[in-house]
Amino acid sequence: MKTELVIDLEAEKQEILKRYRALLRASKSTLQKGDKKEIRKAFDMALESHKDMRRKSGEPYIYHPIAVAQIAAEEIGLGTTSIVCALLHDVVEDTDITLEDIEREFGKKTAKIIDGLTKISGVFDTNSSLQAENFRKMLLTLADDVRVILIKLADRLHNMRTMDFMPRHKQLKIASETIYLYAPLAHRLGLYAIKSELEDLSMKYLDPDTYKFIAKKLNEKKAERALFIKKFVEPIDEIVHEQGLVADVYGRPKSIHSIWNKMKKKNIPFEEVYDLFAIRIILDSAPENEKADCWKAYSIVTDLYRPNPDRLRDWVSSPKGNGYESLHTTVMGPRGQWVEVQIRTQRMNEIAEKGFAAHWKYKESSNDNGLDQWIQKVREMLSNPEANALDFLDDFKMNLFSDEIFIFTPKGALIQLPLGATALDFAFEIHTDVGATCIGAKVNHKLVPISYKLQNGDQVEIITSSKQTPKEDWLNVVVTAKAKSKIKSSLKEEKRKIAENGKEILERKLKSLKITYNTDNIQKLSYFFKLPSTQELFVNVALGKIELKDIREYLTTEKEIENRGPERPENLTVDGIKNKIKGGESDILLIGEDMQRIDYTLAACCNPIPGDDVFGFITVSEGIKIHRTNCPNAAQLMANYGYRVVKAKWNRQKELTFLTGLKIVGIDDVGLINNITRVISTDFKVNMRSITVDTNEGIFEGSIMIFVNDTEHLENLIKNLLKVRGVTGVTRFDA
Ligand code: MN
């Protein structure tokens, strides 16, 4: 089929200029003498070099770099150098322009940032298994210049905003990477607005049904909510101004993704999520009055509404590591509903919205810069080249999202650690040697073990012994990436020494058996003892786990295994399966088809049924597993192992049934269980595999495993179960 595209070039030219002028307006606040000329030069270069290119939507390509530059200026608050780099971020990658051209025209700094952007642009595009390694490379550029990551985030945000024209499998992949790494990064850099938008957009593609469901629910109650907020805010507004504070008081909706997270975490329906919005009080304060004004506003709010004593958060006195400053409290609203109130000044608000760049701008006025410390930490972590890239990423991601606690040294210095950190983490934070020789600690003058979980405000003194060395199980004790990587490298070193010793012992043993010591024989031996590497073989010999008699046994079976080379099942499987699928009519795996020559199983973590949006994942040893795109494991799989993902589609067949679970809650009533099972078995003729029921003081909670045909079948069943008297909620559960 041919689609004809009618393009009005003159109108497009006007539109490009219009967008360019909007960019200039957005960057106005940071413009200095000569900057406008620089930006124009970059714009002209980008326009000329992308002139024959179009986006998937058919629009001129130049719209994209202009939009990325506008996000960088307007939503992240970056200056001219970054705007220039954003305009040119795709030229080296996609056009004839070279880095040398950029350096000649715009100087070293700009060329260096664009070089970084070009390098990481390939991070996700490869079809290799090395994506974790690529993530690490990307983070390395962060150590060079954070602006590379910030512009990359702007680039990703614009791509996510304009993804509708992409094919479905690309949407899934890009959305997975975004939720897996970019959103956490935005969070850690303090870009809360961008983080929330990235999360919502990812959800829109990964879990479209839930996304639409919550959006619709939010929209239904919009007017009611607006009225509630107005009534709640009015008295605050009045008294705040009476007391001479200048403030903007308003309600702000929470993101769809965060509402969904709450529903899942607390296992509650939408109706029971109380904080669909937060109240913000943004104060216009002189720098010297900021803290006092925030507490004044807090006092006004809590005079009007009763606060929940457990929910006071003071990030004004101790800002978060990413620079976030704010006073949070949760109060009881007039209709018996908890309401979160966030109090901060305009300066703090700008940092909260735009993060890092805004932080820089105010650097002089803020006393210590947590973000600098954080970037220093990232550098330290990255400087450990031995860490396994995937492990590293897991640790790193955990540290991106965790909350912080503040711990004091014996001399009163403040150390920031992630929530859940132990005395051993603290020891490694002080110094690697202190960590490696730690045998215990005194917390608030009381003796505690190394595994002690620290509390906010603890004062900690570490006790060491020169006889101590890092142990394997320490890895379960620590949570910080720093401590983990230090322990791992120390264990590795330890193992290397043991292996060296084992190697000598093995040489002697082989000699006594008259076996030549060479690589070939050593590999055969490791294979015989089913060990993953020759190093493991040496270690086992050193520890006495492999003895002379074991090696003799090997000699007797040696002939048998000689012809079997080491197996490489992994690559064979991935490529083999992919080719098999391609050998069919399309490159999509059809599920439920008898003719299918490919083995697959339905993943137990999300129990997909026909009608669910799904993909196939080629596992190492268990063939293809089918997952739902909103499976809790999906983002991690698609982001890290893109080359193992295959497109999959249901081939509808009514005769087949699939196992799924339903959670039913309600008020216990005579005959309730009977009525439920009647709907399931008699009305719907659905087979039940198991049913467990829990009644507690009149509340009924049942889990039922049933066999259904597809999502439509399931939805109808749910609808009818909800009509049963006494039933208040029916939800599908995965495992
Ligand atoms: Mn781009």
From TrEMBL:
A GO CC annotation given for this chain: plasma membrane
User: Which Pfam families does this UniProt record tie to the protein?
Assistant: ACT_4, HD_4, RelA_AH_RIS, RelA_SpoT, TGS
The pathway is: Purine metabolism
One GO biological-process annotation of the entry reads: guanosine tetraphosphate metabolic process
Q: What enzyme category does the UniProt record give?
A: transferase
Please give one Gene Ontology molecular function term for this protein. GTP diphosphokinase activity
**Domain of life (superkingdom):** Bacteria
**TGS domain residues:** 403-464
Recorded hits in InterPro entries, A to Z, give: ACT-like_dom_sf, ACT_dom, Beta-grasp_dom_sf, HD/PDEase_dom, HD_domain, NT_sf, RelA/Spo_fam, RelA/SpoT_AH_RIS
Q: Which Gene3D superfamilies match?
A: 3.10.20.30, 3.30.70.260, Beta Polymerase, domain 2, Hypothetical protein af1432
**Keywords (A to Z) from UniProt:** Kinase, Transferase
EC number(s) reported in the record: 2.7.6.5
Chain ranges of the HD domain: 61-160
> Its family?
Belongs to the relA/spoT family.
Give the NCBIfam families listed for this entry: spoT_relA (TIGR00691)
Q: What does this protein do?
A: In eubacteria ppGpp (guanosine 3'-diphosphate 5'-diphosphate) is a mediator of the stringent response that coordinates a variety of cellular activities in response to changes in nutritional abundance.
Q: PANTHER family from the entry?
A: GTP PYROPHOSPHOKINASE, GUANOSINE-3',5'-BIS DIPHOSPHATE 3'-PYROPHOSPHOHYDROLASE
* Name of this chain's protein: GTP pyrophosphokinase
State the organism named in the record: Pedobacter zeae
